[in-house]
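Q: I'm writing a short explainer about Bifunctional enzyme IspD/IspF for a general audience and would like to include a description of its predicted shape. Could you first generate the structure from this sequence?
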Amino acid sequence: MARVAVVVVAAGNGTRLGAELPKAFVTLAGSTLLERSLHAVAGMRERPEVIVVAPAELVAEARSLADASFGAAVTVVPGGATRQRSVAAGLAALSATVEVVLVHDAARALTPSSLFDAVVRDVDHHGHGVIPGLPVSDTIKRVGSDGEIHETVDRSVLSAVQTPQAFPRADLDAAYAAATSDETDDAALVAAAGHPVSVVPGDALAFKITTPWDLRRAQELLDAPSTPLPRIGLGTDTHGFDPSAELWLAGLHWPGEVGLAGHSDGDAVAHAITDALLSAAALGDIGGVFGTSDPQFDGARGEVFLSETRRLVESAGFRIGNVSVQLIGNSPRFSPRRAEAEAVLSGVLGAPVTVSATTTDGLGFTGRGEGVTAIATALLLQSPRG
Ligand SMILES: Nc1ccn([C@@H]2O[C@H](COP(=O)(O)OP(=O)(O)OP(=O)(O)O)[C@@H](O)[C@H]2O)c(=O)n1
Ligand SMILES: C[C@](O)(CO)[C@H](O)COP(=O)(O)O
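A: Of course. Here's the predicted structure. Afterward I'll give you a sentence or two in plain language.
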């Protein structure tokens, strides 16, 4: 038998929405508001007892929707003329084992399961009622009957309160037994009965669908393509100096400087960027893609690796957001040609590339002038689907 119960109030007319059906039975992207609310309840960590309060004429319809949405026996009872009376009808149907009660508006149909879990955790932690709320972002005025402004309310002490509201059952039962007024939320009754209630962080998705504009906002949220997260990659490369070689680094030729050893031209900056891009796209690494002894890349310039890597990344459905790379080594003196290097690399990749350089203050092999290391990060974005 359940410790926690959720009373889903769905018996309102939805006058402000102006739909032909009572609001909880209005369909949003293929599911009714009631079904969507029950799906969120079904995702709770702690399986609750569920009581649905529906319009008397739709109790059978509600039971059918609830059984399909929640996948277990749901108690459905007829509601009353006000929200408070509907909640009271739901409380009367609770099992004896229930210790914590959440009261939730079916009208808050996009509320995520995580908020239900959060208020259960918080009511257990506090030992008293908790209600989710969001800061007020508009300026709030107290106005008279003809609209004259009496006061600008200090919104820093206000909270826009949502549901699910969670209470120890004893507090909620006592508050409803002692009710002498009709309140718009359960916290008001519980507080009026002398029981503490705390506001805890709410969720923007738990907004109440009240007007046609709210329904449109909910529809657009469900229609909006989920923006895939960007992808980041990391790459490093190290090359020892080879006095017999010409120096090519960061896509530039460095006449008169000591070159770098390697199967290719040894451009550690270009190679680190290549690995960062390949890892961000989950395409492996420079050795796996280009090999370490393929004759076609013998002495190949960094630009060859970078332009081919760009093609592979774009073929995989990404576009390059930006790249950042740092060269670690005593030579060459990089700063005079930083802008030139960034322009060349950005041109090859078609995206911003920033290059910095540093030394290890004489420590390690780079500090002893034996070679250089480059470390690169890359950010990839999903290409818009054409
Ligand atoms: N007599 C009522 C009134 C409201 N509710 C429920 O309480 C929640 C919040 O109420 P509200 O958004 O005001 O819904 P309605 O009363 O239907 O809307 P309106 O005020 O526009 O008629 C809703 O899930 C609604 O179904 C209820 O169960 N019984
Ligand atoms: C319970 C509630 O959703 C908390 O904000 C709100 O009070 C319900 O008000 P309504 O007028 O019944 O929609």
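A: For your explainer, you could say: The mean pLDDT is 94.
Q: Perfect, that's easy to follow.
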